[in-house]
Amino acid sequence: xxxxSGKVAIVTGAGRGIGRAHAxxxxxxxxxxxxxxxxxxxxxxxxxxxxxxxxVEEIRAAxxxxxxxxxxxxxxxxxxxxxxxxxxxxxxxxxxxxxxGILRDRMLVNMTEEExxxxxxxxxxxxxxxTRHAAAHWRxxxxxxxxxxxxxxxxxxPSGVFGNVGQANYGAAKAGIAxxxxxxAQELQRYGVTVxxxxxxxxxxxxxxxxxxxxPGEGFDPLDPVNTAVVVVALCADEAQHITGQVFHxxxxxxxxxxxxxxxxLFDSPERWDADKLLAGLxxxxxxxxxxxxxxxxxxxAGGRSLRTAS
Length: 311
Known about the structure:
By secondary structure, this protein is of the alpha/beta class. It is 42% helix and 14% strand. Helix 1 crosses helix 8 (226-236) and helix 4 (113-143) runs parallel beside helix 6.
């Protein structure tokens, strides 16, 4: 395991599921961890500090150092207080893992404005706000001459990179997180900060709400959240300093560095296209039409397995 001793990490949404696995793995590798979790219901309502506090107790019982935080990461000022807590507690910040999220699935024609806004706020703004505050801190250190090896790990989803029916709000936010990762990686690389993204498959209360994931069987469990936490620890090592702007799909032991929106079918003309001619070219190139393959096909190509929609 990479040695993260002396480093300080923030993990959002760390009271349960994948975030909890990240917090425990980072602590086991030697990092001090701020365990952030609003403690809301899966749909985002309510607040309860006990999930974050329980993870803190687990880390401390194992000999690590941790502190609980109950801020709402979609609140810009609250995200600033979260970053400040790490600095006040241990005097530094090295790792930010953005993981907090909620779920309000609905078919597009039935989705309400509030369901859209709530999901986009927690996922997309909830990634931007902590990263913005952490990045400002790191920029000041870099300008002062400090050599940084700082890390941001974002959390997308197979729904965001492959698309999934019934998750227009969630998938759009998760796709936005992948795009945010690419831009933040380019902007922050000059300061010694890497920014990468995960599109994990894991057995959590969020996936169990949407898919029939079943329970763990005998032997290796490909949907254990720990499988994704291993990737986080690896990317947080100093030796990973030159790996940035990547989106990793994770299913069990299959870790796939995805290549999204690469150059595809080119329709080239030396001058402006005539619409009829372009249409003819499209129909010739796509005689059977063209449509998204969907999440199941994307998962399988990336090394995963099919997930069935929960009934």
